[in-house]
Specification:
Layout lengths: L7 H8 L3 H8 L7 H13 L6 H8 L4 E6 L5 H16 L3 E6 L4 H10 L7 E4 L8 H9 L4 E4 L9 E5 L1 H14 L5 E5 L5 H16 L9 E3 L4 H11 L8 E4 L2 H13 L9 E3 L6 H4 L6 E3 L2 H17 L7 E4 L2 E3 L9
Parallel strand pairs: 1-2, 1-3, 3-4, 4-5, 5-11, 6-7, 6-8, 8-9
Antiparallel strand pairs: 10-12
Length: 339
C-alpha cells in the first residue's frame, strides 16, 4: 500500500484556502494575516505535515544538507561532537551527510575530489593527521561551499575554526604533574605538523620552562593517536636513560596505552611514573588507576561549529571567526605519587 505524505495542497483543501496562502503562511511572509498563519500552523501539526526539504532546496537553490568530514566516529570525542552538531543542525532544518576518512590523507583527498557541490550547503571538517589538503579545501570554498574546521584545523585556510584551548590545557596538565612532585616529564605527542599537536607541545615546553625543568628531546615522542601507539611509545620511553617519572599524553587513548604498558612491566602507575591524558574519555574513569586528564568541551565544539557554519551558509560574506574554548583539568589517581 502506497504511503500518503501530507502536502501543502492537503492543508489548503482542509482550510479551504489557496495553496499559495498556505505556502506563504508556512514561510511566515508579511502578507499573511496572523490569524490565517496560526490556522495553517495548527492544521500542519494536526495533519503531521513535514516539509519536503528537497523541494524547498530547489526553490532556494540549497540542499539543506551539511557535510561532515571526520577521521573516525568510534571514539568518545567525535561521537560527542556529532551529538552537538546534530542538535543545532536539526533545530535549523538541516540534515547531516557524514564522510569518514579513517585518518587517511588519500581518503580525505578522494572525498574532496568527488564531493557533489549540489548536494551540500556547507562542510564541517576535522582534518586527517597526515599532510593537509589546503589546495582542495580552498577549491571547495571557491566553489561557494563554506567550510568550518574544528579540533584539527589547517593553518593556511581563511575560514572559521573552532578549537579547544590546547596550549593552556597542556600547560595546566604539565603544571599539575610538577606540583604533584614529578620532575622528569615526557610527552607523547600526536603526529608532527598538526596545529593542535604543536599547541599541546608548546604548552608542555612552556610549563617546563616556567618551572625551570630541563627539556630532554628523547622524552618527546611523536606518533599516532591510538592506544597501541601509547603502548609502543611507553615501551620506547622505558629504554631511555635517565627514565622519566611522568608522561603527558596528547590524548586519553595514548595515555591508556601507556598505563597498560606500565602494568605489563609491573611498574607502579602514579608512584613510579605518573600519567596524564587529554580528552576526558569515559575510559579514563574506568581504567585502573583512574586517569587524570584535561577535559575537552566536545559537545560545545559540535554546537558552535555547526552554528557558525549555518551563519556562513546564510551570509556569504560572513567574516570568519576563530573560537577557542576553555578546557578543564580533572585530577584522578594516575598522578598520585603516594597513597
Amino acid at each position: 500500500m502506497k504511503r500518503h505524505f501530507v502536502t501543502i495542497k492537503d492543508i489548503a483543501k482542509e482550510l479551504n484556502i489557496s495553496v499559495a496562502t498556505v505556502s506563504r503562511a508556512l514561510r511566515n511572509t508579511h502578507d499573511v494575516k496572523e490569524a490565517t498563519r496560526q490556522q495553517v500552523l495548527a492544521k500542519a501539526v494536526e495533519l503531521k505535515y513535514k516539509p519536503n526539504f528537497n523541494a524547498i532546496g530547489l526553490v532556494k537553490n540549497s540542499s539543506n544538507n551539511i557535510g561532515i568530514i571526520l577521521p573516525v566516529i568510534t571514539n568518545y570525542y567525535f561521537s560527542t561532537v556529532i551529538t552537538g552538531i546534530q542538535e543545532i543542525a536539526f533545530k535549523n532544518g538541516y540534515n547531516m551527510v557524514l564522510y569518514l576518512t579513517d585518518d587517511s590523507a588519500d581518503r580525505e583527498k578522494d572525498i574532496l575530489d568527488e564531493l557533489s557541490f549540489s548536494n551540500i550547503d556547507g562542510l564541517l571538517i576535522c582534518i586527517s593527521s597526515m599532510p593537509d589538503q589546503s589546495d582542495r579545501f580552498q577549491r571547495v570554498i571557491d566553489n561557494g561551499i563554506p567550510i568550518v574546521f574544528f579540533d584539527r584545523v589547517p593553518s593556511g585556510i581563511k575560514t572559521s575554526k573552532i578549537m579547544q584551548d590546547d596550549f593552556n590545557g597542556a600547560y595546566k596538565a604539565v603544571e599539575h604533574l610538577i606540583q604533584s612532585g614529578y620532575k622528569r616529564i615526557a610527552h607523547f605527542a600526536g603526529p608532527a605538523g598538526l596545529l593542535f599537536t604543536e599547541k599541546r607541545l608548546e604548552g608542555y615546553l612552556a610549563a617546563l620552562k616556567a618551572h625551570q625543568l630541563p627539556v630532554n628531546q628523547q622524552w618527546i615522542i611523536h606518533s599516532g593517536f591510538s592506544q597501541k601507539c601509547g603502548e609502543e611509545d611507553m615501551l620506547r620511553l622505558l629504554l631511555c636513560d635517565p627514565r622519566p617519572d611522568a608522561v603527558f599524553a596528547v590524548n586519553d587513548r595514548k595515555a591508556v596505552g601507556a598505563i597498560l604498558a606500565l602494568k605489563k612491566e609491573k611498574i607502579a602507575i602514579g608512584k613510579d611514573i605518573g600519567i596524564i591524558g587529554f580528552t576526558n574519555d569515559p575510559i579514563s574513569e574506568i581504567v585502573h588507576p583512574s586517569l587524570t586528564t584535561v577535559e575537552e568541551p566536545a559537545l560545545e565544539i559540535g554546537r558552535r561549529s555547526c552554528a557558525l557554519l549555518i551563519k556562513h551558509i546564510h551570509k556569504k560574506n560572513f567574516i570568519p571567526e576563530e573560537v577557542i574554548l576553555p578546557t578543564t583539568l580533572i585530577i584522578r589517581e594516575s598522578t598520585k605519587k603516594s597513597g
